[in-house]
Amino acid sequence: MTDTAPRPFAVVTGGSNGIGLELARQFGENGYDLLIAAEDEAHLRAAAAELARTGARVDIHAGDLGQEQAVDALHRAIVATGRPVDVLCVNAGIGLGGPFVETDLRTELQMIDLNVRGAVQLTKLVLKDMVARDSGKLLFTSSISATMPDPFEAVYGGTKVFLRWFGEALRNELKDTGITVTVLMPSMTETNFFHRADMDDTRAGQANKDDPAVVAKAGFDALMAGKDKVLPTLKNKVLGAIADALPDRAAAQAHRGLSEPGSAD
């Protein structure tokens, strides 16, 4: 009788809903066990029950990953599993729309803490072990917003630009190791993001959106293939290429047409 090989282990932040939940589902369906982290414990428990149907063992960790001590607590929970992290998906994030001079500063600082500072902290803690083992995969959820200036989402867009180039820079630093880094750059996706970001009255908020399961599958496939980045769907690849090629002023104006308050009218 031979021992069954242990299942690989993936950690997904923001794993209780939206793209994060669908990423976790991809890993579960492909033979991984999971630890999903988010702020709301009830949502995490519901997500874990759903994900367990894939055959995965699912651990949960509740905490505000915009706070230093909460990220440290998550890392301790990861270490306590006794399992090496084969994949880390840095996916947790929030957004906020509106004119910068009018939007809530406290929310924007929380956004920076979660989307940027928390992402850096958790990556640092987990990556050190990956480097020691010379094995692992990192996936950062950035955005198509990182291809252009983002009027009326100025702070959110800035955080996504950071994640894009942070991921690309780490990929280069680690190119001679057994660790790969992939950046996922979704466009408008059917989640509660736009409602929570106070963008229901924008063209982006009212537009037809991508299925988060499709976005997650594209991210998973790109990660497994060791690609540097992925824009899910052909439409988004074209939009991203155009945005990258446009002069910044023209790209900013194009984004304004989607994100300006009242643009849905």
Automatic annotation (TrEMBL):
<comment type="similarity">
    <text>Belongs to the short-chain dehydrogenases/reductases (SDR) family.</text>
</comment>
<dbReference type="InterPro" id="IPR036291">
    <property type="entry name" value="NAD(P)-bd_dom_sf"/>
</dbReference>
<dbReference type="GO" id="GO:0016020">
    <property type="term" value="C:membrane"/>
</dbReference>
<protein>
    <submittedName>
        <fullName>SDR family NAD(P)-dependent oxidoreductase</fullName>
    </submittedName>
</protein>
<dbReference type="InterPro" id="IPR020904">
    <property type="entry name" value="Sc_DH/Rdtase_CS"/>
</dbReference>
<keyword id="KW-0560">Oxidoreductase</keyword>
<dbReference type="Pfam" id="PF00106">
    <property type="entry name" value="adh_short"/>
</dbReference>
<dbReference type="GO" id="GO:0016491">
    <property type="term" value="F:oxidoreductase activity"/>
</dbReference>
<dbReference type="InterPro" id="IPR002347">
    <property type="entry name" value="SDR_fam"/>
</dbReference>
